[in-house]
# Entry
Amino acid sequence: MPMRMDRQGWWNAVRKGLIWGGVAVFVAMVGMVETFAERQVIIGVVSFGMTLLALAGVAAGFQAARGPAGGGRVSALLGGAVAGAVVGAAVAGLLLVGSVLNLRTMFVSASPRLFSLLSAGQGLHGWYLPLLAGTALGMIAAGASTLAARLRRPILTGLMSVLTVGVFQELLQIMLGGEGVGAVIRDVLFESEGLLPRGALILFLVAWASSSLWIWRRAAVHVWVARRPASQQRGLRLLTLGIGVSALLLLPHLAGPFLSQVLVLVGLFALLGLGLNIVVGFAGLLDLGYVAFFAMGAYTVGLLTSTGEHGIFHFSFWTAVPIAMVVSLIGGVLLGIPVLRIRGDYLAIATMGFGEIIRLLVLSDFLRPWLGGSQGILAIPKPTIVGLELSGPEQLFYLTLVLCGLVVFVASRLRDSRLGRAWMAVREDEDVAEAMGINLVNVKLLAFGLGASFGGLSGAIFAVMVGSVFPHSFQLLISIKVLSPIIVGGMGSLPGVLVGSLALVGLPELLREFADFRFLVYGAALVAMMQLRPEGLWPEPVRKRELHESEQDAAEPEKVLA
Amino acid sequence: MAILTARGTTKRFGGLLAVHQLDLDVEDKSIHSIIGPNGAGKTTFFNCVTGFYRPEEGEILFQGMPIQGLTPDRVTQLGIARTYQNIRLFSNMTALENILVGQHPHLKSGWPGAVVGTPSTKHEERAAHQEALRLLLFVGLRGKGDFLAKNLPYGDQRRLEIARALASRPNLLLLDEPTAGMNPRETIEMMAFIRRLRDELGITILLIEHQMRVVMGISECITVLDYGEKIAEGPPITIQNDARVIEAYLGRGSAGRAPGTPIRPGEAGLPEDSSRAPRTMLEVKEVHTYYGHIHALKGVSLTVGEGEIVTLIGANGAGKSTTLNTISGLLRPRHGHVRLAGEDLGVYKPHEIAAKGVVMVPEGRRIFSQLTVMENLQAGAYARSDRDGFARDLQRVFTLLPRLAERRDQVGGTLSGGEQQMLAIGRALMASPRLLLLDEPSMGLAPILVEQIFKTVEDINRQGTTILLVEQNATMALSIAHRGYVLETGTITLKGSAVELREHPEVKRAYLGEGT
Amino acid sequence: MRGAWARKGTLVDLYLWAFRVVVILVVIWGTFGTLRAGTYSREHWIDFAVFGLSQGSIYALIALGYTMVYGVLRMINFAHGEVFMSGAYTAYFVADAFGRSGYLNRNPLVSYLAILVVAMLTSTAIALVVERLAYRPLRRAPRLVPLISAIGASFFLQYAFRGLYGSGFKAYPEPEVLKGKWVIAGIGILRSQVIVVVGAALMLLVLYWFVMRTKTGMAMRAVSEDKDAAALMGIDVDRVIVITFALGAAMAGAAGVLYALVFKQVHFFMGFVPGIKAFTAAVLGGIGNVPGAMLGGLFLGLVESVGPALFLDGLGIVAPYQLKDVIAFTMLVMVLIFRPSGILGERLVVKKA
# Structure
């Protein structure tokens, strides 16, 4: 087995090391390491902050091993070691510089605590530690990359499980509850602040074993399932669906009020995402001013139901919501008409302009008598059903869940209809779509209007959830927060939007420290997704038609134009 | 009875007259072709019929009703459908979905019905799916309904586009170059298919085509356009032997001379029986170039010797410009190579190739209209650093093309067509090329100017520059070239000295189809 | 190019017509009201106008970056506002150091030159990195993709700066020599504003000279018009694109310093609104048109500054200054809807279908 690595390989390893070293330094300087150091993945062993740095080393090693074509295992290991060492050197360099110069005057995050973290408490004397760690990690990662996928996958699964459980330990501890089997598991795995080392080991082994087992038997399982008669297959599918739905329904009970609140938020953004998905994903109209419809829905409900000074009537929530949706729909049409003939980049900017105009008007003192200015509208009562007030996050969660389900249903029906196809044609090629007999004005306005109405619905719920509406909640940033899940999940894909919302909206809420870095990650995610996977993480699977079978018995050609 | 009638249709783009006073009748249930050289206004006319453009003058009647100025969706609803020169399918939708979109005009269900799931909506959707499947079968795409349109092979994409057009149940179908990029076998299949459309479905077909065997083979009536005007009309036999048509395609010689006679006896340049063969400067070997799926060049090989004028002629869509674009680096060949004096050019970017002395004057001139004449010339010399050489070449260009000297501070966009062509050539000369690539220098120019341009080209050659000339105007090209190649649908079908080619009947056939 | 939009078309046209009428009425009615009430004196108007000019000069400098990049790449560099911010922000540290040590007051000219250089270098570096990482790989992708990448880059930069340097406002030190007013033609004008207008004018002239008179500038114009033809002439298109980015960024960096002179503070979010306004200016002047961007910037600055007082006040709108951004955004929306080729007309060659 050749052991040498040619110059190309060395240079590649160094370059990867420099890139990821830069990333590591950046992550440290931006404050992520320190902030996330609070969160222990494995108590006393490693924190999430350190994990991030470690990931940089791992990534460098992984990529460096991929680089040189021929070369074999040893050269891959060497490459990984070199790359990892460079990453470690970068961090060590930061440590050195930080100890000599006072970086704090410029860089907010260059605190003593950070440097102590970087050197594992040793200060300047510990400069070699990052270097060693980097080299080791790089080598391990490179080694792992040379393993067959069969071997590598379970290890990865094991590590990911430990990481996930460690990061979300708070939540999981709550879910495992106070008594019974759950409590036993909890005591074995966790301590009050985090995952115990023994817990981590157990978890790793379990995950590794299950993953290996799955890989080993996966093919057999698939064959088994395929052999079952169609009715049983459908039954199995329904069963899995049923399990998923019941889990969802039981979630608030298991997880407590905090999680429920987060889930409501995720649900609201999912609603918004589904609405914007109609405009952006189905029809291809990049609307950056979408937050305006969210605002319209919220303010309508606020104005119609509030018991405070700005409330006009005192409608119930259930009366106000349809009105809010209609108001948003009209708003969508009114904002859509002027931009009908604008395309692409210009459309994005124009809609953003509209969004900002609305926000500024709502915020202004000029409209304060009606809309409350920067104070907003207060004292919005919670909705009641049959006398029961839906006040807690759990109850609101169910409401949101039901509405989400409804919207998903409507959206999927629309997608598979004549209108849905017309939207997609417009997205693909507007001129040809028109030549297919599609009336662009109608189709685009329907997209704007229907999308806006879902946004308004979400706004309505938001208003009652918070109990008040302020203009501050309706900035452009919200539009980006809604757009990112669509882009990351897959434009036009319904499951993609839902998963995207869960990941991009849910995660930051669960990991509170994340909030400061939220848009940093969104931005990076958008740039990365466009290059790596522009169709999204979960693009709409090409739907197999039930009519596939009936292709066999399609009529003879003579009967085409019956 | 004419299903489509155009009277005095005129379409202008700024100063350019694309279609001029066109009168046209298409008989119901006939197969009617529109042909003509590049830029004759054929696609523009199609666009006027389908509502993409609004003609400035004249009217277009469909089944007796005026349709000029209607929006495209309205035109389709009335019963006209079309396909496109460069396939414009909905790439990220499946084949079946493409056809379903095509059915849009005659489906009635609204979106509320779709959301609620009313029986009538479901019924209509099911029927629509059935019809779409039948159309897939009809065009020969059985089983491919779930393929994404962009993943289908080229021939299938063309069929899908036709299926999509048929989905709207048209009475008139406009096909824009349906056989572009197809090999002979596929072409014959397409011809049979087009006949079936008319015979079995009763649809009138209006066709734009460049492949003469197709046009002559299936058309009942042919209209020939040149410079936006109709110059001939009639059945294939008449058209093939019409002198004006022949001239429009093969080109005129100098004023007053019939095509086919040499400019001067005893040849400019090298004598044909010269034993002293020139050194090979450019070698193109077995080059295959693709535009996406389209296999545009199928193994093209040619050589250009030092000091020669070599011409590459052929009908529209044959791949002439593609060949030059491949040599100049704007396109990369998938197989084969291009060598300049032995050096492979494939690794270089266009600006590097230009710096090596291979300079192209692109089709349509493409001068920098916002820059002055002087600045254009300076742009040509961009890659050079020798001040003296620059001044010398500038003088040379001004001597060769005195009009440019007069207008040196004028902005490029204000020059006339002929002057712009001169400027484009002058600009290329400023790069001090070893090999000059000329792409259709005569296009869009009046005959007198064409003569001037060609004389200039000869002068340039005499001063030592090697020239590879791509031209549709075969007569003019062959009158100044030493050697020539004939390109037909991506392959070289003929080569030889210019004298041989001039008289060769195959050349005429390559342009105008069988039976001439 | 299309035929008229048939039935629904007339409703659309009606709406658009009404839109225009409303805006014009607002302007006229308001102006009338203000002038009649006579709330503002001549000094007031002059102050507004000068402020508007200085703001407009800043917009003009930033707009150059948008218009030049659109010219060569046909895309909106959404992250350009952050390029502007990064220059101003980074130069703050230099300014602060100078201010603290007193050097700023002893040698204001040299100090400001240093600050300018740092700002321009930083902006250029950031712009080039963004071009390389977020735009170049997507050269051939459909339009939406680079736009989203640009939006992502923009947010990333904003929050990166926030993470690195904190979320607070950083105050630029003010040298003694720039405090107070100069009297020009009998009018008292803030010294800082004069410097801004003069400085911007100088940079604009330099850029104009560069684009129109140098070989590289000519290459830029050639690439803007026809990339392929330029390549055929031996012009390295990628290099020209990089130079274009660099120039636009340098202008934006300079604008950042000028901004700091007028507004005296920087903060991580400061690039967003001026960025949009500069883009408006670029479109107003005709995107791709360098002199147009300059004029567009000045025009926008003036209208934005004079507008609230001139017509909003007259309508009885309380605290009209809150709505000054509304005026800018309204102009943006109107120019995109009604005249996307700009008031001076696009200088780009549009390829026919």
Q: What stands out?
A: Chain C is about 75% helix and 5% strand. The radius of gyration of chain C is 21 Å. The beta strands of chain C are 170-171, 181-184, 187-190, 265-266.
